[in-house]
Amino acid sequence: MMTRRFRSAARSVGAILLAAALTGCGTNGRSDTDPNVGKDGETFVRPSLTVYMGNSPAANAIRSLLPEFEASTGLKVDLTSFTNEQLSQKLSVTLAAGSKSPDVFMIRPLEELNRFHRSGWLQPLDDRVASDADYDFADFSESAVETVKAEGTLSAIPLSTEQQILYYRKDLLAKAGLSVPRTLDELETAARALHDPGGGVYGYVARGQRNALVTQLSSFLYSEGGGFQQGGRATINTPESVRGMKRYVSLLKQYGPPGVFNMGWQQAAGLFAQGKAALYTDASAIYTIAIGSDRSSIADRVGLAMFPAGSAGAKPYNITAWALAMNAGSTNKDDAWTFIRWATSKDVVMRSQMLGNPGARRSVWDDPQGVSGFPQDYIDAVTESMRVGVGHDRPQLINVGEARDIVGEVVVRGLLDEDVGEAADKANQEFQALLDREKSR
User: Fold this and answer.
1) 108-119 tens-digit pLDDT
2) Rounded to an integer, what distance in angstroms lies between the CA atom of residue 339 and that of residue 81?
């Protein structure tokens, strides 16, 4: 892993060698061109920040623009990138030890925000945004902001967003004389009509792995009026939530491919990109994979649309996938906010979005320049989802992985021809027990 620390060290070695050479030439070690050296030869140490980031388009965009930030602020940024899991582990160990570093870090809010907040590792940012009118915090999508709040406290700033959308085969719908599904009823009707396993095309595909499916199940629950929880009460066995689960189970069981139990997003997206499914619901962030490459036989035959409406309307998730947070133990909080403010400013979000990172600022999505890199149907689906979406796609608690397993098991039981309602009752008891355990700690 190549870090700025390594490159900085390399430059320092070069500077030492150069200084030695200049000393030999009678310059007394002074450099007239070094901005860190004063007139009398004294050396100034530039203020520095330590930033940890995950590997993502957002991090890549910020890294590419970093020289501008350093030049304009005089701050030196020591930025290190990690894989997603490496970052989570590194932060957990470092922050638990009470380290003052990193000053700023990327966080996956729906996986880590509640745990980090409960641990006291996140610096509240409410006062920062409230006292900075020029920052225009109201420009951020409300549901994206919902994702980065813990117990009502603004604990991070959105960097990139993700929504659940519908992928569909335009040619197959046209051949069947069907319009793009706008409701879940229409989605099921279309899946039934286009299901042709003998011809190599399944009517519908989505995630079927117990843990992985939960995020994509969420929009079915919300659009039928249900959800995972309400306050401290588990709600996965309400009539509305059960109706959403039955929708998901029915689509996968009747019109999905065999082996759906083993499908995460990679397998489902791959099957759709190969032209083996007519309809697919999943995250907007993977659209370039789901539609296939320019050389794909279906690349120009894939359409994107808003998630279909259930009995409660269309309520897809609209979440913050990545956010920037400040270390509560940092001794450089003002400089840390300067960096976060810059990285999430309208200008940087605009340029980041033009590089392929979907941001959370509504003004950027409303600007033709800000959406120039995305297809029009993608833009339409995302902007509408930002307006009506729900700010979480999984249960909201610290032990989110355990909760996902509990919820996902209901779908698995349904796919095995067991009663979804009974499975939901059992799961609701388990989920409530988990919520109660966390509340008592």
Assistant:
1) 999 999 999 999
2) 16
